[in-house]
Amino acid sequence: MKARTYYILTLLIIFILAFSGLVFYKHSTRKSMLGSYVFSDVIPNMGKVTFISVKKGGSQINLELEKNLWRVAEADNYYANYILLNSLFTDVFNSQYSSLVENVDNSLFENQTVLSFFDGNKKLVEEVILGSKDDKRLYNFAKKGKDTFLITGKFVLPLDIISWIQTPAFNFQEDEIMDIYSLSEDGSAKKIKYTDTPIVFRDYMGFIYFLNAVHNDDFTVEGAGQERKFVVVSYDGLRVEFSILPKDGKYWGQVKLDTTKMPTVEVKYFVDNNSFLYEGWYFELPQDYAGIFYKYIEK
To answer: What is the pTM of this model?
Structure first.
């Protein structure tokens, strides 16, 4: 009887020790993650990553790598904003676990963002769920597997297309503009005085942006209104031709970069290296600006 009792006690002790060891192992493993990199699977495999998904609620932005350049799938694979991409990759390569969160408040993940990385075969490389920031806005709450941590990183991940597409690197101020003129269908030019242009024209020239992009091959000109063009020429030799046409209640534009006969070295370099961003694309223009432009050019 004593032998049997000892045997049962021994098994019980072994079970307790094994269970305690397992708990300790899991706890120590989670603790040992602190200070290590959050995207530990992505970092060594970044060369294989060709697809990045950012999801929040019912919205989603998908980034695809095409010919060594990142594109925005929701913008007909137009070029992604390199500043925003650089910010994302900086976070990916530098984000670390700061502390383990034991008692998780579910409200921290009410508006969670799911950041996922896939390889060329669309196989998931790594996925992290980002919640809200801490009170001091220095860290992000994040889920990795079943655990919740505070992690470092800014993680600026908007869900609107306008933020992710590459915006022009040129903006015109009044003292930079040498000439503005409209182009008629026969190619004749009519000079426009800057001070006579609508205020919204000057506002937009000072901060040019697009809402979306569609490749020429996917844009149907049939059913569109008459195309109207105007040109802006700067003193340093940059020549930008804008074409605007209405279609389906929106205004769409094309942009053509060129130089005058004697541009500065900087402008020539800019045009030579950035024309590809505009050639072959239609851009959805902000309607409140474009509508006024279109009517003004008609005069």
So the answer is: 0.84
